[in-house]
Amino acid sequence: MSNPSLNNNAVSRLASQSGAVGRLAQDSGGFAAVVAAFESKDANAFRWVLDRLEMLPYCELICEWVRIKLCVLRCVELCGPPREKAQVPNLQQFAHAVVQLSSNEKLLRRVVDAISCGDGSEYRAALDELKLVDFCHLRRPVPSEVAVPPAPTSRAGSLPTQTTK
Questions:
Q1: Under DSSP, is residue 111 helix (H, G, I), strand (E, B) or coil?
Q2: pLDDT of 20-33, one tens digit each?
Q3: Burial class, 100, CB count within 10 angstroms (exposed 0-12 / middle 13-18 / buried 19+)
Q4: How far apart (Å, rounded) are the C-alpha atoms in residues 126 and 145?
Q5: Selection from 74, 92, 90, 84 nearest residue 140 by Cα
Q6: How far is CA 60 from CA 126, 149, 164, in A?
């Protein structure tokens, strides 16, 4: 059974996020600077660019969007496009795979290094050694190491109001 209140909140958040990202995308230089700041884990630069574009109140929404989209792009870069009609492992199988991978420190380091370097062949080779290739597209999202705190006027789940100067 769905929860209408939760669904409305999700719809509102997605609409707010789309509006903020759409507005940011209108400035290609600003968009590129935000992505570059995120990728270099520079929270101050990330916030500075958004502040210059008068978009700092949307910081949390934009950060979340960039994190998720970069994760999807990195996944395709490392694993290639998902196979058509691929059998998707269930959550319990995925949990077992994570335990298996994390219990082998040498292979875990190889996987982390391969992800960091964008080395798909090394990433897949490490997963192949553990017989976890079916989990290639199910890796953990890119952590938001940018650690961008929400703007002071922001409230989680709602579109922040912009203050006028």
A1: helix
A2: 999 999 999 999 99
A3: middle
A4: 24
A5: 74
A6: 34, 7, 19
Amino acid identity, position 14: L
3-state secondary structure of 123: helix
Residue 2: pLDDT band (50, 70, 90) is: low
State pLDDT tens for residues 49-96: 999 999 999 999 999 999 999 888 888 888 888 777 777 778 898 888
Spell out the domain ranges in the chain.
4-138
Kindly report the pTM of this predicted structure.
0.70
Structure tokens, 90: 């269930």
| C-beta atoms surrounding 66 within 10 Å | 23
